[in-house]
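cron nightly-structures :: item 1 of 1
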Amino acid sequence: MSSLNLIFCGDLAPTGRFEPLLLSGIPVFTEIFDDIKSADFSFVNLECPLTTYGKPIKKTGPALKANPECAKHISQAGFQVVGLANNHIMDYGHQGLIDTIKACRDQGIATVGAGVDLEQAQSAYFAEIKGVKIALIAIAEHEFNLSENGSAGAGPMNVIDNYHQIQAAKDKTDIVIVTFHGGNEYFPYPRPGLRKICKHYIDLGVDAVICHHPHVPGAYEYYKDKPVVYSLGNFLFDAENPPNGWNEGYMAKLEFDIETKNFQQMQLIPYIQDFKNPGIIKLTSPEKESFLSRIESLRRVLEDGDAWLNEWQKFCEKRLNTYIANQYFPFNFRGLGFLMRNTPIASFFLRKKMALTKLNLIRCESHHELLVTGLEWRFLKMGVKQIHKCKTK
């Protein structure tokens, strides 16, 4: 009774090959079941709506969904709370979100981080466990997912709104934790802005910040003796041709002292997701030690400011031409990425005379907001509706 244990898991999308396994009752969570059930509190990020609704929104990237019956198996795995603040939760619009919340609540699973309006999306999850009052705030970066202008959607990463959320939660509870769906895919470190924001939340009195989204296990650090995890990696998420790191992840088990309410320690529980023996497989020695050693290496790089920023610069340079193509090329076609990587065509879109103008339109906050608002207005006139602009029914 002297400690309170909270366990956090990364991205769960019961889609692709995993969906029929779950629906047929194959126990894909067996090896981590005891870890989840023995914790006083358990959380997983639900990375897709649970719905049979058939009309996806217009967006970039894949539209994901899974059968609502999957909620039963998430509940049986022992999860008490699922986070809905992520970039896929609105893939099937208002109806998909409503179906998801209902499917979870019918199985006794609480949801946090999304709702039919902004007030609900920004509502924290509150619980009292072993006499300790905790609050969980779930937020996400801005894609085709956020609640805006009275719409359904996910809770936004907005430092001003988040300040008020955190202060309101602190007034009612002993422990406040933020889960943050953000970061750059396949990059195991935080971008500089994300790291600064996470530390800001700690400065505001949050007791831990747990991030997910990059789809690979990432670095962590302690700031003011409190944990900041920058990527848990995937929990259960299918991919036909997964990149390196896609099938790996770790659960973060946080321990708090019941009397003082102070953070004590964090344990990383590594695993892989597998199809040969379908489900999540906990790593054991020597694979476990090798995995944890890699995570500690990431941590050491992060703590060396020059080394970390060098990794960020290399990542940006590797992705820059693809971003230029998506931003400036007038149409898309198969092979565009190869063309941008292997020819000098990218330089055509960044002519010297216009380079600073393009940079200023994106970097300056006022220019950036005008550009985004203008593009949203133009796309609406073109008939391209964006879900976060649609009013709730």
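cron nightly-structures :: done
Residues 305-328 form the longest helix (24 residues).
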